[in-house]
Design goal:
The structure holds 2 protein chains of 2 kinds. In chain A, about 30% of the residues lie in helices and about 15% in strands. Chain A is an alpha/beta fold. Chain A has a domain of about 240 residues: Rossmann fold (3-Layer(aba) Sandwich). Chain A has a 6-stranded mixed β-sheet with strand order 2-1-3-4-5-6, with helices on both faces. A 4-stranded parallel β-sheet of chain A has the order 15-16-17-18. Chain A has a 3-stranded parallel β-sheet with strand order 10-13-14, with helices on one face. In chain A, helix 5 links the parallel strand 3 and strand 4. Chain B is α+β, with helices and mostly antiparallel strands. Chain B folds into 2 domains: about 130 residues, Pseudouridine synthase I, catalytic domain, N-terminal subdomain (Alpha-Beta Plaits), CATH 3.30.70.580; about 80 residues, no CATH class. Chain B is about 25% helix and about 30% strand. In chain B, the strands form 2 sheets. In chain B, strands 1, 2, 3, 4, 5, 8, 9, 10 and 11 form a 9-stranded mixed β-sheet that branches. A two-stranded antiparallel ribbon of chain B has the order 6-7. In chain B, a hairpin with a 2-residue loop joins strand 10 and strand 11. The chains are: A alpha/beta, B alpha+beta. At the A-B interface, helix 9 of A face helix 1 of B.
Chain lengths: ~675, ~240
């Protein structure tokens, strides 16, 4: 096909080359629409010497990556600047990759189909650990040496951001820089550092790396050295240059200052979460001990309700979507959620019904009012996450919802006409007994009974994930269950589910949990392991049809490393952790105390409505929660098991940390 | 009020699937503020109906869509109203009001005209092949339908073949049996590799007379974007 079929009239020679070479092959690959770009909202400035070029890469398929809000926010912020430009790329599926390697076609942006190595920076979004081999694959397809030490001054700078970067050590050999925390402000500072380096003739790569390391929130792994003890444990990770001994995360103080994305991308082909997404708050202080996202994104910063309403209304009008998701880590906690939902559902578009989805619904705050609101539009299933099967277990993990909370939420859902309820649980949690595990099916069975009581045959789908301990959580010291033990528990649940009519069970592959566990808390010695798996063809490890445990085992053996030692060993208080030179604001002694409290089955209140425990996330950075309502949402126990009548003040008052026993 | 719209699918958007095109239209109409009637039931959908699917990767100058509108819209204005909401390559060219009871596009369309680029086939070979095929009584070909292999007499589905240099213009039936351009090529010469495949027309039969769902001849009078112009815009 003709090469002059470009986009937006921007024709650089290489762009024509890549598109012209790619196009004849697109008819013979699966879902070719994921490689054409053309989304509504995809507008990029023309490249020029005055702009630092960023290629933002989501290292999984387009369908998974396109909706990623973090990537879209940075794409917009950079493209609004007159000294930057940002384009996007996604991991090509294996069929196109084979074509690209055969034909010598490089990784390309979907915006203008420019070759990836024409950009000054290639920045990866790391939402999960199993994509790491895809990161290497994308670099290789971009014709960039995978190891940062092998890169010439002219090679693109390779960066990463996203939740998984809180333990970036397994990727230390490959990444030039890593961003911790919110990206909204720091991208512009990085842009300025790279622009200055470009203006100076981009002579020494080390210069720009040192400049980047001076930016708060930016970690440059090559400026640090990991030292090990004779017994193999880490001694410390220390700067070998003038880099800061501790790299702190970045936190934007007020979400109201960042109403992004303003121009959410609307793809032409099907993707996951294909709807308008409006982030209603960032951060969560419920304090669930297994939840890395809740720990690393503190404090709670709510978007003003009026801004949410206008982002919803303008977004629906601009995009043509008929569904909006109000996103956060626990949307029912948003102050005045019912008003926001009803204003979102307001049929001001005049174009039929709008449906509202509330991902991450906590069962406790799920009031009948909210149920009645969303049911006006189309309904799919409802999902709740009790996470553990017994109250004892939920105290350990600090997910303090009572059985009554769950049953009243499920009863309310079934009485409002829902037929399908999905419940998320973890297994392999600290101190878990078989009684706790089997409690999952008992809860599900009683939920099915509630459907019957409401006069219909409702189904309850139980989704089981193997628990993987993560950095900067109270469970970071916990030796995770072995694959054999996880499999035993899954089988226990399957057997029990067979005798529970109406209960369906789905589970995550324990082998994949094992590898996720290895990489989540691994150190720099895993670099060669990841490289080995990638070189042996182990890409798309998040996809069950491509997952290859044998490659990981082979790579660990080749590197002389022990999976057991990394994954299943309980770590001690005095052991240096691979992420000790990084900070999510949380004091290590706070996390350790919370870990001890977990083992003592002691719960901890939500600090947004009670006095401060000084976890460090607010006090360390001089910021505070931004919560419109000084009291918790009405109704039920709010899952805290607390007496909430006194929750009338917004902190921050420093008090001695006194964890409270609950539900005893 | 039902309106029938003719639109193009040219350039990069040719890689969208039939389902993708439906979703693009739903959203474009919402963005443009055109009120569409919704189906009843648990999961209401906007009432849009498309003609026969165009295979992913093929381009077209003549795709059709019937829209059940919930409000009065001047059909002469509709293309301009939706134009800013459609992606590059999808151009609404013309709309007409269709009376209640009009046959659906799926029922009405009986054949399509295609232009198939065959850059590696010499014009003389193309002429010879077309003459040979048209002279045949039968032309068996194995096709895939609903995941299973089926035998088809391709000759019965070939209405006409016209070589134009290295381009083969072919009119192929869509019912009672349908034949796709790739299947035609496989039946004629398995070695041929198609470049661009472009649907230029769809045909219906009204009281025995062959005509289009919206005649192309109306274009000039309505001042809508002409087809060649639309093609230039997408390129």
């Amino acid at each position: 096909m003709s090469g002059e079929r470009g986009v937006s009239g921007i024709l650089t020679r290489t762009m024509v080359d890549v598109w012209a070479r790619l196009e004849p092959h697109l008819a013979s690959v699966q879902k070719p629409a994921r490689y054409i770009g053309c989304e509504l909202g995809a507008e990029v400035p023309p490249p020029g010497p005055e702009r630092v070029g960023w290629l933002l890469v989501y290292p999984d398929t387009y369908e998974i990556g396109l909706p990623n809000q973090g990537l879209q926010i940075l794409y917009e912020i950079l493209n609004e600047r007159d000294d930057a430009l940002a384009e996007r790329s996604y991991a090509p599926w294996t069929d196109l990759e084979a074509v690209m390697r055969h034909e010598g076609i490089p990784l390309f942006s979907v915006d203008t189909h420019r070759s990836a190595d024409e950009f000054d920076l290639i920045a990866f979004n790391l939402s999960a650990e199993l994509v790491y081999t895809n990161v290497l694959n994308c670099m290789d397809l971009a014709r960039v040496p995978v190891r940062s030490a092998d890169r010439a001054a002219t090679a693109p700078l390779i960066g990463a951001g996203g939740h998984a970067t809180y333990n970036p050590e397994p990727l230390a050999d490959f990444l030039d820089f890593v961003v911790l925390g919110d990206g909204e402000e720091v991208v512009s500072e990085i842009n300025a550092a790279v622009a200055a380096w470009k203006a100076g003739g981009r002579r020494d790569r080390h210069d720009v790396l040192r400049a980047l390391a001076r930016i708060e929130g930016v970690y440059v792994p090559s400026l640090y050295e990991a030292r090990y003890l004779p017994d193999g444990r880490l001694e410390a990770t220390v700067p070998v240059d003038d880099a800061p001994p501790i790299v702190e995360k970045r936190t934007i103080a007020d979400l109201a200052d960042w109403p992004y994305p303003k121009q959410q991308l609307v793809p032409l082909t099907e993707v996951v979460h294909d709807r308008l997404n409006v982030e209603v708050f960032r951060g969560c202080t419920r304090g669930c001990r297994f939840c890395q996202a809740g720990m690393i994104t503190r404090p709670v910063r709510e978007r003003p309700a009026a801004q949410v309403a206008s982002m919803v209304q303008q977004g629906l009008r601009r995009t043509g979507y008929d569904e909006v998701a109000l996103t956060s880590l626990s949307t029912a906690d948003f102050s005045g959620i019912e008003d926001v939902v009803s204003s979102a559902m307001d049929d001001s578009m005049g174009c039929g019904n709008v449906s509202v989805s509330l991902p991450s619904l906590r069962v406790d705050a799920f009031t009948v009012g909210v149920a009645a609101q969303i049911q006006k539009a189309r309904r799919t299933g409802l999902t709740f996450a009790p996470e553990a099967g017994t109250w004892r277990m939920r105290q350990v993990i600090n997910k303090l919802i009572t059985e009554e909370d769950l049953y009243s939420a499920v009863d309310s859902a079934f009485s409002q006409g829902w037929r399908r309820v999905k419940l998320y649980f973890l297994t392999g949690l600290p101190t878990e007994t078989d009684e706790d595990t089997l409690g999952i099916i008992e809860l599900a069975r009683r939920c099915v009974e509630l459907a019957k009581a409401n006069g219909h045959n409702g189904t309850v789908t139980v989704s089981i994930g193997g628990f993987v301990p993560k950095a900067f959580t109270p469970f970071q010291w916990f030796g995770m269950n072995t694959e054999v033990e996880l499999r035993r528990k899954v089988n226990l649940l399957r057997d029990a589910a067979r005798h529970a009519r109406g209960v369906q069970i789905k589970w995550h592959d324990p082998r994949a949990s094992l590898v996720e566990g290895l990489v989540s808390r691994g150190d720099r010695r895993l670099g060669p392991v990841i490289e080995h798996v990638w070189r042996a063809g182990g890409t798309f490890q998040e996809w069950s049809e491509h997952f290859r445990l044998d490659l990981w085992e082979e790579a660990m053996a080749a590197a002389g490393l022990d999976m057991d030692w990394y994954c299943h060993r309980h770590r001690t208080e005095d052991e240096a952790l691979p992420w000790d030179h990084l900070s999510a604001g949380l004091h290590k002694d706070f996390l350790w105390q919370d870990w001890r409290d977990a083992l003592d089955e002691v719960g901890l209140e939500d600090c947004r409505w009670t006095p401060c425990y000084d976890c460090g996330a607010c006090t360390g950075y001089g910021i505070e929660h931004i919560v419109a309502s000084a009291v918790p949402p009405a109704g039920g126990s709010q899952g805290t098991g607390q007496d909430l009548r006194r929750g009338g003040e917004v902190p921050v008052t420093l008090l001695p940390r006194t964890p409270v026993g609950v539900g005893a | 009020m039902k309106q029938r719209v003719r639109f193009t699918k040219l350039g990069k958007v040719r890689f969208l699937s039939h389902r993708d095109i439906a979703r693009v239209w739903e959203r474009a109409l919402r963005r443009a503020g055109v009120r569409v009637a919704y189906s009843e039931g648990f999961s209401p959908r906007p009432r849009l109906s498309f003609g026969l699917a165009l295979s992913t990767g093929y381009e077209s100058l003549g795709e059709y869509l019937d829209i059940d509108l919930a409000e009065e819209v001047d059909p002469d204005q509709l293309p301009a109203i939706v134009a800013p909401s459609l992606p590059t390559g999808i151009v609404a060219q013309v709309a007409i009001v269709i009376p209640p009871g009009t046959d659906s596009l799926q029922q009405a369309v009986t054949s399509s005209t295609w232009r198939i680029d065959l850059p590696a086939v010499a014009p003389g070979d193309l002429i010879a092949a077309a003459e040979r095929v048209l002279a045949l009584d039968t032309l068996p070909v194995t096709v895939e339908r609903k995941g299973a292999e089926a035998q088809l007499d391709a000759r019965l589905a070939i209405v006409g073949l016209t070589p134009l240099g290295s381009v083969l213009e072919a009119e192929l039936t869509t019912q009672p049996r349908s034949l796709r351009p790739a299947e035609l090529l496989r039946a004629v010469d398995p070695m041929w590799v198609a470049g661009r495949v472009l649907r230029t027309h769809q045909w219906t039969s009204v009281d025995g007379a062959r005509c289009e769902p919206i005649p192309f001849g109306d274009l000039g009078a309505r001042g809508a974007t002409s087809a060649p112009h639309a093609e230039a815009r997408a390129s």
